[in-house]
Amino acid sequence: MKYLSEFRDGRRARMLAAEIGRIVTRPWSIMEVCGGQTHSIIRNGIDQLLPNGVEMIHGPGCPVCVTPLEVIDKALAIAALRNVIFCSFGDMLRVPGSRDDLFKVKGAGADVRVVYSPLDALKIARDNPAREVVFLAIGFETTAPANAMAVKLAKQQSLENFSMLVSHVLVPPAIEAIMNAPGNRVQAFLAAGHVCCVTGYASYPSIASRYRVPIVVTGFEPLDILEGIRRVVRQLELGEARVENAYERVVTEAGNVAAQKVLREVFAETDRTWRGIGTIPRSGWRLSDAYLDFDAEHRFDVADITTHESPLCRSGDVLKGAIKPHDCAAFGKECTPRSPLGATMVSSEGACAAYFNYGRFSRSER
Amino acid sequence: MCLAVPGRVERIYDADGTPMGKLNFGGVVKDVCLAYLPDIGVGDYAIVHVGFAISQIDERSALETLRTFAELGILQEGLDELREKQDESAES
Ligand code: SF4
Whole-angstrom Cα distance, residue A198 to residue A219? Predict the structure, then answer.
């Protein structure tokens, strides 16, 4: 496939890794923020190709993993209501809530439907005017333009039976929270390429200089990731802390201006709780006041929810890069992709699932 | 959710005032909303997330990145491969 296979070649990957080995003189800890990149790194064994001492810390950029438990519980409560058709991306179905997951609620008779795009949920609303159609709108800046357009169209088309349960999260505030955390080990970031193709990266230079941390906008294919790592290692070795774009074929500094305009209209910044991590100020989007009529939290009374997280699960430490998945005592025992205790074992972008699926059961298999 | 692969625009159409496209992902054709890429044309490649095209691939930059790798003594053959594929798609 064009623009894909050229960036997947194994021999070239090994040569890029050798180049990194040539320039590195000290150990460095680099965080890839995005779960898609975590998946690619583990699937392609990039962590194993890297010279000793260059460690990849897996960041919190899996939207499924960080969606707060309270939102999952609200989703479950709304989905169970009579007359509701509850629409979600497929990877949310097995995410454990306090008691159930969407899959079990569906098994118990709720009308839960997997959609590929929020526009599919709009169509379901149009086709079922007598039912309430609720869409679980989660994700980073990458999925936000799609969800924003869905609700914008719903308003234009006066689709009164459509609403969204919104829990969007934003990358730059998370990067700052990681740098501010006590005991932080991260010395450089691979910024998520597809987040940046929406937002651009004009906000990153101030973060790079404030925290003296190199940030390189990076793609998802093996060679893209290795090139991102090569560039941050070069900066680290030279004592630099700049923003570079290693994914120029997809990302521009300004980002997608048309999408940003709709995002500003539909969403407003809000404090957001990240599952396993805690509340990060101004790190999320909610629906703006102009769109509150389409907010499922306003439309359905699901206020009295008490959450309960598995006491065994250490996904918060995994998401913060404090431990690797196989350091969790439940990993591969009580917790597997078939019966996950935490969201990081559910999503293909979750670090626990990636480690399980690609056989990283101990440190030695780094 | 965030693993997006490039798709090639095969046809552009209108659905109730919203610009849409048929995009080909290595043989699988999907309907994609083009509202955020108003200038994209047939034959162009785009990155798509949950049914929305959010970025058009810049051919020149793609070649330049491959050239950077080549300069590292890595992959002259990569450029040749890309050129061959371009010739193929130009022929087809
Ligand atoms: S292995 Fe399971 S229990 Fe342990 S941190 Fe990961 S998701 Fe939580």
Answer: 14
SS3 at position A25: coil
A120: which chain B residues are within 8 Å (Cβ-Cβ)? 51
Please tell me which of the candidates B2, B37, B82 has its beta carbon nearest to residue A34: B2
Nearest-Cα residue of chain B relative to residue A35: B2
Residue A235: what pLDDT? 97
Q: What is the ipTM of this complex?
A: 0.89
Residues of B in contact with A195 (CB under 8 A): 2
Query: What count of CB pairs under 8 Å joins A to B?
Result: 144
**Residue in B closest to A91 by C-alpha:** B1
Task: Give the global pTM.
Answer: 0.89
Q: Helix or strand or coil: residue A358?
A: coil
Q: Separation of A318 CA from ligand 1 center, angstroms?
A: 8
Q: Which of A65-69, A204-208, A361-365, B58-62 has the lowest mean pLDDT?
A: A361-365
pLDDT in tens, A97-156: 998 999 999 999 999 999 999 999 999 999 999 999 999 999 999 999 999 999 999 999
Give Cα A97 distance to the centre of its chain. 18
Burial of B18 (0-12, 13-18, 19+ CB in 10 A): middle
Cβ pair B61:A12 closer than 8 A: no
Residue B19 Ramachandran class (φ > 0 left, ψ -120 to 50 alpha, else beta): beta
CATH second-level architecture of B5-91? Roll (2.30)
Q: Which CATH number fits domain A65-168+255-263+279-299: 3.90.1100.10, 3.90.79.10, 1.10.1040.10, 3.40.50.11740?
A: 3.40.50.11740
